[in-house]
Amino acid sequence: MSGKLGGAVIGYGGMGHFHVEKMCEVRGIGLRGIYDIDPKRSSEAQSKGIHAYESREALLADPKIDLVTVATPNDFHKEIVIAALKAGKNVICEKPVSLDSEELEEMIAAAKQYDRLFTVHQNRRWDEDFLTIRKICESGTLGRVFRIESRVHGSRGIPAGWRECKRQGGGMLLDWGVHLIDQMLTMMRAIGAKPVSVYGTCTNVTNTECDDGFTALVRFDKGPEWVVEVGTNTFVQIPRWYAMGENGSAVIEDWACNGKIVRVHQRTENNVAPISAGAGLTRTMAPRNEKTIHTYQLHKVKADWSEYYKNVVATLNGRAEIVVKHDELRQSMKFIEAVFESFRTGNTIRF
């Protein structure tokens, strides 16, 4: 393609607003308009000077549109994505891309059949907390990293809407889990590690239809084991990231990247005084002498969520390779299905 790409968004809800903003910010793409089934949202767009198509068919028939972003509820993704591909449009789909692997394969097959780009908005690969912990782990600062814990917790239960409806792909595993799992698999692919097994549990504290939280213990053929966890009924903050290595530990408390690195420089300690531990004493769990460790501030890795759209634009213009690939989408969806299967059966699922 050459020249400025024409972009459009189907679904002008919360994420639809986000995509409109990005299409207006990124060079090489211009927003042509939106379509939403809700007339109130169309009116809102028009009040902001954004063209609102009268129908999805009208949007897809516009020859000036090269790229369509689908930001509708999950259960409509497959139908709309395939219709857009058939209309000759390149497509970005919001996550979770599908309700299962079978639906995903239908979309990938359509992209191949109609020879168009199809990818998914895994924007949290550009989260600064993720990039910061990744840099720490890959830099060797902690030595050999043997465990990484990735957690997102809140206290308000599942938000209303599609997230609390099973048939629409609701629940935390498909909502937040798809992001955390994508981050984990992205880090592990970088070192050539493949998942070996997962043991997963889900919770139904605030919602009986969908999981309102989950925990997955993941082992790889090399590299660290992982704990990936989401909760919506937690009233004491849990760190966003915790990494343990042979030479130190790192904690990131929140998305603002508050935290620290503690690195040991002298393993042996003389005359360790025991501490009181419950009904007994312990030297093993006594805190370290400050002379044997160094504490460092975190240096946050700066990032820009617009990089996702910049990559899509560059790919469509033949200057780059798409970052979020089909095989990566397949791996994430299979992984999510394995967590559900582990919870259902109570067994560890092996890959």
The first-level CATH class of the largest domain is given as Alpha Beta
Helix and strand pattern: EHEHHEHEHEHEHHEEEEEEEEEHHE
**Structural shape:** elongated
Number of strands: 16
Q: Strand count, sense and closure of the main sheet?
A: 9 strands, mixed
Helix proportion of residues, in percent?
25-40%
Q: What distance separates the N and C termini?
A: 40 Å
Structural Rg: 23 Å
Could you provide a short overview of the structure?
Helix content is 32%, strand content 25%. The protein is an alpha/beta fold and 351 residues long.
Structure description:
It is a single chain. With 351 residues, the chain is an alpha/beta fold. The chain has 2 domains: 5-121, NAD(P)-binding Rossmann-like Domain (Rossmann fold), CATH 3.40.50.720; 125-258 and 298-303 and 335-350, 2-Layer Sandwich (Dihydrodipicolinate Reductase, domain 2), CATH 3.30.360.10. The chain is 32% helix and 25% strand. It is built from 10 helices and 16 strands. The strands form 3 sheets. Strands 15-12-11-10-6-9-8-7-16 form a 9-stranded mixed beta sheet. The chain has a 5-stranded parallel beta sheet with strand order 2-1-3-4-5, sandwiched between helices.
Keywords, please?
Dihydrodipicolinate Reductase, domain 2, single chain, Rossmann fold, alpha/beta, 2 domains, five-stranded parallel sheet, 351 residues
